[in-house]
Amino acid sequence: MTRNRFAKTSRALSWLLATVALGSSPNAASATSPAWAQLPSTAPDADGEAVVVYLVRHAERAEDGSDDPPLALAGQIRVQQLLAMLTDVNLTYVHTTDFKRTRDTARPFAERAGVEFVIYDPRELEALATEIAATPGRHLVAGHSNTTPQLVAALGGDPSDAIDEFEYDRLYILVIQPGKPAMTTLLRFGEPYVEGQDFGLRAGSTAFRNSPREQR
């Protein structure tokens, strides 16, 4: 089931990348999600290059009793799945908050792209959105359950509903073209989220689960 889901998502992503690169108009009859109808119908105009932003929450974290846990085994697996899914994306910028779980989510993408990841303050999302929107290229942003939808909205995209505590499979893709509204596509990857259920393979307790100050 997961393998078929990954294959379908990879095909959808390849179709999306080709559409954006070629500036072709998506065919609603062949779309696999209503989100495809929101894709840009024209290529970036000659006066400005598009900004493409890939936004993900950090992968599953290990509950090790610390205030800065690393990725759990499940999270490491999910990062590798996303890395494979984005093989054909030539990232130019990688952004992450300064936590182990977000840095470890972002690091493989920065290493493959040959760039240093940029640390951002999750309390300054509007400033980050302004900076990204003004910087043509392909950006990956690793964030948290509360910051990722907020950043999507700050970039002019559609964040959909809130991210659940155990929900780690969202991939937002925003295409920002000069003078046009941001186009949002929401994909799913890796082990599917089941409401109220944890994928597992996490270490330790859940002592920090209810902390209001914790970036999830």
Report on the structure:
This protein is α/β, with parallel strands linked by helices and 216 residues long. It has a single domain (2-21, 47-188), classed as Rossmann fold. Helix content is 30%, strand content 15%. It contains 5 helices and 6 strands, in the order αβαβαβαβαββ. The protein has helices spanning 2-22, 73-85, 100-113, 125-133, 147-154; strands at 51-57, 93-96, 118-119, 137-143, 170-176, 183-188. The protein has a 6-stranded mixed beta sheet with strand order 3-2-4-1-5-6. Helix 2 (73-85) runs parallel beside helix 3 and helix 4 (125-133) crosses helix 5 (147-154). The longest helix is centred in the N-terminal third of the chain and has 21 residues, at 2-22. The radius of gyration is 17 Å and the shape is globular. 37% of the residues are buried. Mean pLDDT is 79; it is low at 18-47 and 203-214.
Essential attributes:
alpha/beta, 216 residues, 5 helices
Mean pLDDT reading:
79
Note the total helix count: 5
Q: How would a crystallographer describe the biggest sheet?
A: 6 strands, mixed
How big a fraction of the residues is strand? 15-25%
In the predicted model, the low-confidence regions spanning at least 5 consecutive residues are 18-47, 203-214
Shape: globular
The strand line-up of the biggest sheet is: 3-2-4-1-5-6
Helix-strand pattern, N to C? HEHEHEHEHEE
The whole-angstrom Rg is 17 Å
Question: What structural class results from the helix and strand content?
Answer: alpha/beta
Q: What's the count of strands?
A: 6
- Name of the top-level CATH class: Alpha Beta
